[in-house]
Each structure stands twice: as structure tokens, then as C-alpha cells.
Amino acid sequence: MAAAASLLSLLPRPAPSQPCRFSPVHSPSSRRKPSISISISIPHSAAPSSSNPTPVTTEEPPKPQIELEFLGPKAGADGAYPVDKASAVSGEKLLRNIMLDNKIELYAAYGKVMNCGGGGSCGTCIVEIVDGKDLLNERTNTEQRYLKKKPESWRLACQTIVGNKENSGKVVVQRMPQWKT
Ligand code: FES
């Protein structure tokens, strides 16, 4: 046994740095171009979650408001006028419509049955603007005709636009000023 080992030690051994003389065997699949795959991992906090969707802001800023106070038409026994209140988005409604929408009586007895329905042809929807006239439109030609000899503060409610879409504030209206006591 010792003799066999000594014989093996006499056989030549390849140098460690000698290149391999065998060429590699290529199978059909090994001739394909190498493919590269990249995987990207998204941190959990950055990935969209159906249980916590990103909120979409669609809200518009609030529109300017006009606050209205309606006095009268007649003072009570204590001398104070009854007051009704309403509010409207600036520049979106006529004073007549605001009053009707809020069930605030606009017409005197005759106007109740004979008004033109807001067409500007009966002159029965008269109000007095006690305060806040700068928040309203200017008198229209229809008003100039019907209110020519009336106080400057009188308006036809069906011709009066409350606000100009940008302003806000308070308007005080005397109902049926022709009845004012
Ligand atoms: S409702 Fe007729 S003029 Fe205003």
C-alpha cells in the first residue's frame, strides 16, 4: 500500500495556474442572449392603499353671503318693527325672490292679487333700503320710471340684485314703505 502511494506521487500533476483545456459544452438554451431582470420594491408607506386612499380636494371656497333684515311693515304697540331675517349668496338672487323663498310678505293688498310676477311692469313690489344700498345694483331704467318721484332709498324688489358675487355684508329692508308709520 505504501508502495502504491509512492508511485502515485511520482505521476505529473497540472500546475494550479494552468488553464483548463476543455471547452465548455453549449446546450441550445445556453446560446440565448443573457436576460436581465430587475425587481423594484416599493416601500409599504409609498404604495397606494385601498383602505387609505389619498384624499382628493374638490371643495370650492365658500361664496360671499349677504345677510338681510326685513322690518315691518308696521311698528308694533311698543314702537318697534317686527324683524325677519334671511341670507343669500352674493349676486345670485333678486330681492323679490329672496323674500318669496323665505315667505316674507312683499306685496300690499293690491299687489298681492295684481302684481306682474316680477316682470317690472306693475310697480307694486316697493321696498325701502334702510341700510346696505351699496351692496345692491344701481336702480334700473324700470325703477327710474316707476320711482321717479319717490325717495332715493326706494327700490322695486324685482329689479334689485342682492350682492355682486364678490361683496358681502348686511342689508336692512323696510317692507311696504308706503305704509310706514
Ligand atoms: S313685481 Fe311688478 S314691478 Fe316688481
TrEMBL record:
The cofactor(s) it depends on are: [2Fe-2S] cluster
Q: Where does the 2Fe-2S ferredoxin-type domain start and stop, copy by copy? A: 114-162
SUPFAM superfamilies listed in its UniProt record: 2Fe-2S ferredoxin-like
Q: Which UniProt keywords apply?
A: 2Fe-2S, Iron, Iron-sulfur, Metal-binding
| Start and end residues of each stretch annotated as Disordered | 1-62
InterPro entries named in the record? 2Fe-2S_ferredoxin-like_sf, 2Fe-2S_ferredoxin-type, Adrenodoxin-like, Beta-grasp_dom_sf
Q: What are its GO biological-process terms?
A: P450-containing electron transport chain
| Low complexity bias (residue ranges) | 1-12, 35-59
GO MF: 2 iron, 2 sulfur cluster binding; electron transfer activity; metal ion binding
What GO CC annotations are associated with the protein?
mitochondrion
Q: Which family does it belong to?
A: Belongs to the adrenodoxin/putidaredoxin family.
Q: What is this protein called?
A: 2Fe-2S ferredoxin-type domain-containing protein
